[in-house]
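INFO batch 0412 | record 1 of 1 | parsing
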Amino acid sequence: MIKLDIFSDPICPWCYIGKTNLDRALEQRPDHPFAIEWHPFQLNPDMPADGMDRIEYLETKFGGRDGVVKSYGPVLEHAEKAGLKLDLPAIERTPNTLDAHRLIHWAGVEGAQTPVVSALFAAYFKEGRDIGDHQVLADIAIRFGMDRDVTLRLLDSDADVDLIRQRDAHARERGVDAVPLFIVGGRHAVPGAQPPELWLQVLDELAEQGD
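INFO prediction complete | emitting tokens
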């Protein structure tokens, strides 16, 4: 097996597109060697704990409505190419993703990390759900064999808050400044939402090296 470390944030549209493109390639190479682990990176580490209004957030970040339209045009274009139908108008709040990252961490312990990541992306970008809300996170957890009551108790505590912040800070210290970022075998960095064709090339090269 070859480790594939993925740095992402579940409110990052490019991360969702990048994961979807990777999935398309892995479907075509079902005997792929990747052992995937997801790592936390908050796009907005200073976001208020209860998030903020989505439109206010976007217009502040991108300098007004025109900036939002300009920035999200390529997102929608690449999402369509990846076969994703995003319901961006359904998103009312931009959440703080610290708790979502805690859930991803706990899902890793349960062997359900990638399905939980997929569910977080879908909940946010397709269903417009607030993935900073503990009840929403517990709804996702229970779908993949995690205990709802335990998840809620953990979310209501400070469990692993410092760990997630330390891991996020460590990623930045190592030079991670944008996501998604994929690290193949601990050595080769693949930044951004690369097309399935690139991942197929990587997988085929790895297969050749293993022959």
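INFO post-check: The radius of gyration is 17 Å.
INFO record closed
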